Amino acid sequence: MPTRSQAPTTRPEAADDTPVLRIDSLNTAFQTRFGPVEVVNDASLTVHAGESVAVVGESGSGKSVTALSVMGLLESTGEVTHGSIRLRDRELVGLSNRAYRAVRGRDVGMIFQDPTTCLDPVYTIGHQVTQAIRVHADRGRRAARERAVELLTMVGIPDPASRMSAYPHELSGGQRQRVMIAIALACGPDLLIADEPTTALDVTVQAQILDLLRRTRRELGTALLLITHDLAVVSEVAERVVVMYAGQVVEQGPVADVLTAPRHPYTAALLRSVPPAVTDRSTRLRVIEGTVPSPHTMPDGCRFAPRCAHVMDRCVTEQPPLVAAPDGRDRRSRCWLADTDTPPAGSAPGTRATTEVPR
């Protein structure tokens, strides 16, 4: 499975272990009729070569805006107001539109949630895939077409040579998503961002797309930043997970640790709200009471405090920092209980907050 021009099939990590993506203290705001509104606050995360990191949270938690901040695709009213976004050793914050266009597609690719709105209905599939190749890889028309057929073969499009002349409406939803993946991989980017890539697909096609992402990461060494709300997908694809709530990172760490012993009440509540694999009429679905606060009216203290079963006086007045777990493991959480020896958030005293996520 080739990359860019004729790069090797694996991509070694940098000798100094520099992350492919490093986000530090990111703040992103949008101009509204009420003035500037901050929708991402103090977000930090890293993704290394060949690693898969999932970002999870409810709608409105800031996941997609974080991804769009990395891509430089914020609307005209949006801007990064503070922090750093580094791709390898290159700072992306402050790049001109022209400089960003050279980065997108070549160094970082993005798979959007709905391929129907991202693929141009008046151009053929072949035109859209070859255009991405010719813009960034400096190939002639014939070489770009050969590469496009190769990419469509790689992502599992049947009869790829003839499909080059098809229009998006002539393909199924799963095939359109595969075309989006082919475009994102056209120039062998170091980082692939997938924003809810399986949301609109049936279960069988979801499994195929996830398998394709796993193969891509394994064979190309491409780093993957996966935006999702599906904890089953997280347990299946990712190695580390970043949990966001109301624009902030509230917990992060290895998937196995976070999903079996969450240290933030919000993470525990998310896990409890996953529907069980087997239900009957007596089964009650558990929900997180309340709603995500509006960016216009964020609480003064912990942003989850109005919905939290463990709230204390301190939570209402003071905003907790993101701190490392006391056990020394690679885990961080934004909770006043995080640096104590209390049981994992959401569990009864003396128990372990284990949750099996349906697959």
TrEMBL record:
One of its GO terms (biological process) is peptide transport. Coiled coil: none annotated. GO terms for molecular function: ATP binding; ATP hydrolysis activity. One of its GO terms (cellular component) is plasma membrane. Residues 322-359 are annotated as: Disordered. The lineage of its organism: Bacteria, Bacillati, Actinomycetota, Actinomycetes, Streptosporangiales. It comes from the Bacteria. It is a peripheral membrane protein. Residues 21-271 form the ABC transporter domain. Signal peptide: none annotated. This is ABC transporter ATP-binding protein. Belongs to the ABC transporter superfamily. Keywords: ATP-binding, Cell membrane, Membrane, Nucleotide-binding, Transport. It holds the Pfam family ABC_tran. It is found in: Cell membrane.
